[in-house]
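Re: Re: ligand-bound prediction request (bumping)

Still looking for help on this. To restate: I need the protein modeled with 2-acetamido-2-deoxy-beta-D-glucopyranose bound, output as structure tokens. Inputs repeated here so nobody has to scroll up.
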Amino acid sequence: MRLTTSSLLPFLARAVYAWAPPAYPDYQLVWSDAFYGGPGQLPNETNWNILNTNLGVNNELQTYRRDRRNVQISGGRTMQLVPWRDETLGWTSGRVESKYVFVPQPGKKTMAEAMIRFGSYPADNKQGMWPAFWLLGDAIRHGTGWPACGELDIMEMVNGLLTGYGTIHCNVYPGGVCNEPTGRGGSVAMPSQEWNRWRIVWDRTTEDWLSETITWFMNDEQFFQVRGDQINNHEVWSTLTAKPLYFILNVAVGGTWPGYPNDKTKDGYGAMMEVAYVAQYATAEHNATEPQTKTC
Ligand SMILES: *[C@@H]1O[C@H](CO)[C@@H](O)[C@H](O)[C@H]1NC(C)=O
Ligand SMILES: *[C@@H]1O[C@H](CO)[C@@H](O)[C@H](O)[C@H]1NC(C)=O
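Reply:
Sorry for the wait, this slipped through. Here it is.
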């Protein structure tokens, strides 16, 4: 959008509230964490499991640490997930998973969103970095395997390149309804590594599940949508739309998708993912309109 006098005012007004989950017409804020607290604290462990393990997945290199070097409240109402080179472990990094779970309700629209930026190193210094904001089906915490549990990747980025990816994983591996291990998804060009708002919306207000949708947005720009009849299997669709889901924020280092760090890859704050808030909303009405906060 061109920066006109009329667009400048809402931009400035919004910037004041950039760190708190915004209010949206027709939606109620159901759950959020805006990362209040003093600099160097761990995020609120009433809300988050802070991983302290090497998960050994996707050929990733990092060991996640419950350590304020890797996971901290900035003091400026954000959370920072910071990867570091480590003489013993190779790489350490941060990953938090919400204890909170939610189910997108029938007859409603539900939104999950976060405001995210990345450390300032250019892509040249980010080979191997793989930050993500995503959801997993809570069934994986109760014995169901992947991808049968369902996975919705709201935003993934690899190697510091300015492309955001939205993806679903479901059903069986390999192949299946979601074409594993690739999944089904779309992507969008990011304006910068600075603050962008990433959101998915479940629309369960339709007559039947076949026309329910899940839609991905970056700063209100739609970049992917999947509809029930494209999945065409009610049980699989319900793992993405009608079963408990939880939030994950992490910075992986290395792996099958991004490849591996090289000599130029740098660690520390320039490679971090910083999160201003994570929030889940739902409509009270069955046919609320999409929120419009687009300003640029
Ligand atoms: C942590 O989160 C819980 C539940 O959301 C909240 O009641 C509590 O006040 C939070 N603690 C701090 C220190 O913010
Ligand atoms: C929802 O849709 C119904 C019928 O389509 C309409 O009568 C009603 O006014 C709408 N409600 C809102 C809040 O838009």
